[in-house]
Predict the structure.
Amino acid sequence: MLDRVSVKLIRAPLAVSAKGLNRLGATANQTTLFGFALGVCAFPAVVTEHYLVALLFIVLNRICDGLDGALARIQGITDAGGFLDICLDFLFYSLIPFGFALANPEQNALASAFLIFSFIGTGCSFLAFAVMAGKRGIENPVYKNKSLYYMSGLTEGTETIGCFVFFCLFPHHFALIAYLFGAACWFTTFTRIYSGFYTLNR
C-alpha cells in the first residue's frame, strides 16, 4: 500500500548513489547478492537476541535492494536480474521471522510459523499473477521499470520492513506484531486472488 509513496521518496537519492556505484564498476546483480549477504547477517543477530544489530543489517539489506534496481535502470533491466532479486527478497523475508522463532521458541515459534505461512499467501498470489500478466502483456502503470508485474496490496515491501523494524525495537511483543501483520497479509492475499482472477477472467 505504501510502496508507491516510498518509491517516490527514495528514487532521487538512490539514483545519485547508483550513478556513483556504476562509475566504480559495480553491477546490479553484485549489489543484489551483497545485499542478501547483509540480510543473512541479520539472522544470527536475531537468534542471539542482538536486535539492534539485526536492525542495522535489515536496513542495509533494504538499501541494497533499492540500489540494485537503480543500477539496473542505468545498466539495463534483465529477466535474470529480476529473477535473482525477487527470489532473494522472499528468502530474506522468511529468514527474519524464523530467526525470532529460534531466539525464543516458546513465545515466538507459533507466531513465526503463522507469519511465514502468510508470506506464502502474499508471495504466491504476487508471483502467480506476475507470470500470467507477463504472458498476456499486461503492464502496471505505477511500476513501469520493474522486470515483472508488481501487484499492489495492503501489505507490500514497505509495510513488511516496517514490521521487521517493530520486531527489532519491541522483540518482547514479536508474537502480537506477527499475528497482526500475518492477518493483514491474508487480507492482501485474498484481495489479490479476487482481483487477479477477475482481471484474468475478463
Notes: Residues 3-201 form a domain with the Four Helix Bundle (Hemerythrin (Met), subunit A) fold (CATH 1.20.120.1760). Residues 2 and 152 are 9 Å apart (CA to CA). DSSP finds seven helices and no strands in the chain. The chain has one domain: 3-201.
